[in-house]
Design brief:
By secondary structure, this protein is mainly beta. The chain contains one helix and 19 strands. The protein is globular.
Length: about 270
C-alpha cells in the first residue's frame, strides 16, 4: 500500500512524519477504529447521544471513526465501562475493572449488530489495540474462553489476555484463530503500562507482537466462520484500561502495520521504540 503525506490529504500534522506514524483511518482496508481517548466519540447513552462523560461516569456507546460499514459499539451486558481521567498521556480512557462486560459492534444504531466478517476476513486480519493491563485470568489452552479485547460471539477469532502457562503470574497476549483447530500466537505483556498489541493473519500465517517487537508466528488456515456478532471487551477477571481498537481487512506490509502501531504508541505516551 501507499502511505500518503499529510499535505496530500489537505492537512498537516505537527508531531510526526506520516510515513512513520499514521492514525488507523488513514490506512487502506481500515474497517473500524474505536477511540476511547476522544471525548467526541464516547457517550453516556447507548445510542451515541449525551454529553461526553466525565471521570468515573459510564461509557455506554462509542462512535466508529472509519465509518466504512460500522457505526460503533454499545454496551451489551455486564457492568459498563467507566471514564478514567487522566488516563493515557493526560487524556481520558475507558476503564474495565474486573467485571463481566461486553460491548456489541453495530453496523447501525440502535440495534443492528455487525458480524465479525464486517471487520476482517477469514484469511486476512489485522487488529491493533492500545491497552494497559493490570490483571487477567489464568492460562487456558482454549483461548476463546479467556478475557478478550476483541472477539466474535461464537469464539472463532480474537485478541485474548491471560496469565502465562509458566505459573509465575506473568501475562501474555494471544492472537487466536480457529480453523479446523485452535491456532494461537502468544507474546508476553507487561502489567501496569501502556502497550500496543497486534494480531496479523495473512499469507497463511497468524502473528502476534507487542510494541513493535518480535513476531510470534504460527501457520494459519481460513477461519471456520466469521458470521457471528463482533464484540469487544469481555472477562470477569480482566482489569485494564482501553484507549484504541482498530481493525483492517486487507493485507498490509510490516511498514504499514508499524506506522499505525507508532501512532497509537505516541498517543498513549509510550516512549518510542523506533
Amino acid at each position: 500500500m501507499m502511505l500518503l503525506q499529510a499535505g496530500q490529504l489537505g492537512f498537516t500534522r505537527m508531531d510526526s512524519i506520516w510515513t512513520d506514524e499514521i492514525p488507523p483511518e488513514m490506512v487502506a482496508g481500515a474497517t473500524m477504529w474505536l477511540d476511547f481517548t476522544d471525548p467526541a466519540t464516547v457517550f453516556p447513552n447507548d445510542d451515541l447521544t449525551g454529553t461526553s462523560p466525565s471521570d468515573g461516569e459510564s461509557v455506554l456507546s462509542v462512535k466508529d471513526k472509519v465509518l466504512a460499514g460500522i457505526a460503533g459499539a454499545k454496551f451489551f451486558s455486564g457492568t459498563p465501562l467507566k471514564v478514567k481521567l487522566p488516563g493515557a498521556n493526560g487524556g481520558g480512557v475507558a476503564r474495565y475493572e474486573g467485571v463481566s462486560l461486553q460491548m456489541e459492534v453495530l453496523s447501525s444504531f440502535p440495534t443492528t449488530s455487525a458480524f465479525a466478517q464486517t471487520l476482517v476476513t477469514t484469511t486476512t486480519k489485522l487488529v491493533i489495540v492500545a491497552v494497559n493491563v493490570r490483571a487477567t485470568g489464568a492460562y487456558t489452552s482454549n483461548p476463546w474462553t479467556a478475557d478478550a479485547v476483541i472477539f466474535d460471539a461464537a469464539g472463532y477469532f480474537g485478541i485474548h489476555l491471560m496469565q502465562s502457562s509458566v505459573g509465575d503470574g506473568s501475562l501474555i497476549a494471544t492472537a487466536f484463530n480457529y480453523s479446523s483447530g485452535t491456532e494461537r500466537a502468544d507474546r508476553p505483556i507487561a502489567t501496569n503500562q501502556w502497550q500496543v498489541i497486534t494480531l496479523s493473519q495473512q499469507a497463511g500465517s497468524l502473528r502476534c507482537r507487542v510494541n513493535g517487537g518480535a513476531w510470534a508466528s504460527v501457520s494459519s488456515a481460513a477461519t471456520s466462520t466469521l458470521a457471528n456478532n463482533a464484540r469487544i471487551l469481555d472477562g470477569a477477571t480482566l482489569d485494564a484500561d482501553i484507549a484504541h481498537i482498530a481493525t483492517f481487512n486487507t493485507a498490509q506490509t510490516d511498514a504499514a502495520i508499524s506506522a499505525v502501531e507508532h501512532w497509537m504508541a505516541l498517543d498513549v505516551g509510550i516512549t518510542p521504540w523506533w
